[in-house]
């Protein structure tokens, strides 16, 4: 993880000092169970419209990019926007509830399951699913009592995905995971240890697609060693994500999840209702919904991770190219 660089004053996208993180950590820990009884009225209060907003980033490239996109769009709508990088959801979600953070980019199914576990225990039946509408309904029901509003998802989704060598795909005529199952090929899968048991991974590939997973090679999710193992033929497939920007570098291509094994992890803005629940905020961030795609996210990730461009520069250039903000 590369710490965020402070933006220039002309961009007004300042990251708060590290000292602020210490205060945030202490306060967020104190409010980890959501709004207290004496503050429950704030949950049902009219949506607020603070003119100074803090956007939270989870500290990895894609989250930094989304936070920058949000900040620029909000500034365009007349808000002052700061960005705060907090790498731990256990810290930034309570801070979102308390109003120390006003907006965060999240992933629908993952956040729904996280809130569900927080409310109902770690063994609670997951509510995230491949069905976006059902996932959003569950997510909003869990978020509302905590004073959070989940805005509409757009087109971009960051899901688990599976890639094979392009040469392997050509040789066997593979474009989808169904194609791989029909080919009846033995497959060694490079992934994390948990893939052996997770329903979206080896068990799901066998059950949903009939893929013959003969072994799981524990090299991690989308790591360089995992991709190299597929590149050199040691393994036949790797678990990665739909916005992985480095597949071309290893000669890999994604196989389409045509039977929707993976959950609906669409990008969604989540806001503190009392501070950022207004139609102005909704409209400003909603401008991304018709333009931002999964491919766009992958491209921007590549510009930061491979080309070493700054997230704020990549985000600004993207919004300018889509005519969502004027050119400087």
UniProtKB/TrEMBL annotation:
Pfam families: OpuAC. The keyword Signal applies. InterPro entries: ABC_Gly_betaine_transp_sub-bd (IPR007210). Residues 1-32 form the signal peptide. Keywords: Signal. It comes from the Bacteria. Residues 52-320 form the ABC-type glycine betaine transport system substrate-binding domain. This is ABC transporter substrate-binding protein.
